[in-house]
Amino acid sequence: MDAIKAIMERVSTRKFSDRHITDEELRIILDAAMAGPSATNARPFSFIVVRDKEMLGKMADANMKYSEPLRGADVGILVCGDLERAYAAAPDFWVVDGTIAAQNMILAAHALGIGSCWLGTWPVEERVENHKKLFDLPENIIPHSLIAFGFPEGEFRKQKDRYEEDRVHFEKW
After folding, report:
1. What are the per-10-residue average pLDDT scores of the chain (173 residues)?
2. DSSP state at residue 152
3. Is the CATH code 2.60.40.4070 the one for domain 9-154?
């Protein structure tokens, strides 16, 4: 699948089948995460990959509202920022770098026929603290976002055209 097609067709998947993601597919998804740009190539991200159903449920509880898709997922990935690896001149860029990594995973999964649902964690302090406790994270590791992955139950839904002319400004506002 080409990149434009993946971007334009991707939708969030909230119901997953029992089909399992292979180790090879998972490696491709994680490789895509690490292939994206980051400020000064600092790559201040780390990933916690979870397949255990009980732990996926605990992660859904830790992330609170709207995280139910995680309970039916085959894999959950917690994207984390590593403040010790962040670009020193602009340390908050770790958030953007984590976002790019998350988006790359979501697009790679879609290209492989795997559904995903991005579940916001940072900057909701309670969610961040819940995951820090759940995974016993060191102080420099900050939970960024949580993504549920699995093969969709049924067919992929098609995304509608989301282009909005009034949001585009050329040369001036």
Report:
1. 87 96 98 96 96 98 96 98 94 96 97 96 97 98 98 82 92 95
2. B
3. no
